[in-house]
Specification:
The complex is a heterodimer of chains A (about 100) and B (about 200). By secondary structure, chain A is an alpha+beta fold. Chain A contains one helix and five strands. Chain A has one domain. In chain A, about 15% of the residues lie in helices and about 30% in strands. Chain B has about 200 residues and is mainly alpha-helical. Chain B has one domain. In chain B, helix 3 runs parallel beside helix 9, helix 5 packs antiparallel against helix 7 and helix 7 packs across helix 9. The chains are: A alpha+beta (about 100), B mainly alpha (about 200). At the A-B interface, helix 1, strand 3 and strand 4 of A face helix 4, helix 5, helix 6 and helix 7 of B.
Chain lengths: ~100, ~200
């Protein structure tokens, strides 16, 4: 299970390399990373659609862990519905903010 | 005689596709048209249009919905989000030939800018921009798009066929690099499906 420490490390690393990400919602899950990044530079989501989630993978020292990742604009965070199968709501997420420079 | 509406006219294997595979196959087909148009020196609006469609379908094929064999949402703007998703995955960026995420990210900014630019050329977004409902660096307040003529009130309309699409993000070499990434990912995903037991 990805621990909070591992999730925070992954998110921080991604934020270091993606200057447009302002924060991330980490949804704890026993089997996979579930992340929704907030990026103000995105085009707005089309009305009525939930957060679009991509299936990727994360290599953690040779162990491949599923990575589900979505992206939202600031005003869509905690507003856009999550996919039906997500089984969690925004309140379940831990917010990880960008480290101070 | 052609197939009945809703039936598959291809071989039986194609009729057993799941949603992810179906989008991958269509993404590959769209990319073939992009290449043909490039080779024949067609107007740039058409090659941009097919590259955008190919990227959009590849992005849909990698959504969780498609991989759960559900029809992905009918949104048009997945390509740049998909590029972002690729950038946060060390495993996936490595399989595309990038030695590390840092290596991928050095190319990422340019790819992302081009993807964002061609997404802006979808008619709906262009229409929103022309009405002041959105903005984008070069075309703020103007309906530049790859499919339909546009024009400001009182000015003569411009057809996409007559527009150069010469903005830096739409430079031919940059679009070619984006097409190569899309092509590599489609090939990789289709290959991985082929090795699965039937």
């Amino acid at each position: 299970m990805p621990t909070e420490l591992e999730a925070r490390a992954l998110i921080s690393e991604n934020m270091d390399h993606n200057p447009d990400f302002v924060r991330c919602y980490w949804f704890p899950d026993p089997n996979e990373y579930r992340l929704v990044y907030v990026d103000p530079t995105l085009l707005p989501a089309e009305p009525g659609h939930p957060v679009e989630v991509f299936q990727m993978t994360h290599d953690e020292g040779g162990k491949i862990i599923p990575l589900k990742v979505g992206f939202v604009k600031e005003e869509e965070a905690e507003v856009l519905p999550l996919p039906d199968w997500w089984g969690q709501n925004w309140d379940n997420a831990v917010q990880v903010r960008r480290r101070a420079a | 005689m052609g197939a009945e509406l809703g039936q598959c006219s291809a071989g039986s294997a194609a009729c057993r596709l799941n949603w992810s595979e179906a989008f991958l196959r269509q993404a590959r087909s769209d990319l073939c048209v992009y290449r043909l148009l490039q080779e024949r020196g067609s107007d740039k609006c058409h090659s941009i249009h097919y590259l955008q469609m190919s990227g959009e379908k590849l992005a849909k094929s990698e959504t969780d919905e498609a991989k759960r064999n559900m029809q992905p949402g009918l949104t048009h703007y997945g390509l740049s989000k998909w590029l972002r998703a690729l950038s946060v995955s060390n495993a996936d960026s490595r399989t595309l030939g990038y030695k590390s995420r840092i290596d991928y990210r050095s190319a990422h900014a340019s790819l992302l800018a081009s993807a964002a630019a061609i997404e802006q050329l979808a008619p709906k977004i262009a229409n929103d921009r022309s009405k002041g409902l959105g903005s984008f660096m070069h075309w703020n307040g103007v309906g530049v798009n790859a499919e339909y003529p546009w024009g400001r009130v009182g000015d003569p309309p411009i057809a996409p066929t007559d527009y150069a699409f010469g903005e830096p993000e739409l430079d031919d070499l940059r679009l070619l690099r984006l097409a190569m990434l899309i092509d590599a990912r489609i090939a990789q995903k289709l290959d991985s499906l082929r090795v699965l037991p039937s």
